[in-house]
Amino acid sequence: MKKSSMVIILLFAISQVNAQLDIAYLEEALQTPSRPSTDQERDSNRKAPEVLTFLGIEEGMTALDLVAIGGWYSEVLSYAVGDAGAVIMQNNPGRLVDNNIEEISGRLDRRSNITHHIGPVSELPDNSVDFALTALNFHDIYNRSADEAHERFTEVFNALKSGGVFGVIDHEGTPGADNAALHRIAFDNAVKSITGMGFVLTGASDLLNNPEDDHTLGPFDPSLDRNTDRFILRFIKQ
């Protein structure tokens, strides 16, 4: 993962700012028999307990899963925040919801602390969310239109409480490459775009680093086996 010297300095300066998530508890919860085997097959590549610990999620939070589609992360988040917390599975209306409605319905049946919000984040009350996450989809919006990304994720900024966390996980691209065609985004482009919305970068992680991925293939290439080189960024709303 390539980072500017400013980011490297920042990484060494950042200490733990949130209470630790109980990784052992979350790992055990993810083994519950009611959870689909297809979900569990993704666990090793996604390392959700470690990722969410890094991002600083806590029990009792209200968490927003952005462009959740089938909601894999929504269900994981529902265990992380516990019964005292809540998860908003956000999707935009259209075929992605229609094509995944059975999977979505199953999550809502299994986890009573998940609600499905079909519509823009702007419909949520301002200052109502503690934690927001976009996993592997920021690049799609940014590559389509940087202005659209700025508008849509500024809505996330507005929905978050002061001190709220915005986590971004995405397929890392190479600066200057055709990242739109590759369904990737360069690290520095993501940071510049998101800090331009008012967020403050407080950390980055190599937990999902894959040195065997040289960023020249798209994430759906069979040779990658759904295990791309990914960055994890942690922002806060001050």
Q: How large is the radius of gyration? A: 17 Å
* SSE arrangement, N to C: HHHHEHEHHEEHHEHEHEE
Largest sheet: 8 strands, mixed
Any idea of the CATH topology? Rossmann fold
Named CATH architecture? 3-Layer(aba) Sandwich
Sequence stretches where pLDDT stays below 50 over 5 or more residues: 4-18
What multimeric state do the chains show?
single chain
Percentage of residues in strands: 15-25%
The H-level CATH homologous superfamily, spelled out, is Vaccinia Virus protein VP39
**Structural shape:** globular
Give the number of domains. Answer: 1
The number of helices is: 11
Decide which structural class fits the backbone: alpha/beta
CATH class: Alpha Beta
User: In angstroms, what separates the terminal alpha carbons?
Assistant: 27 Å
The average pLDDT is 92
Percent range of helical residues:
25-40%
The total strand number stands at 8
In short:
The protein has 238 residues and is an alpha/beta fold. Helices cover 39% and strands 22% of the residues. It contains 11 helices and 8 strands.
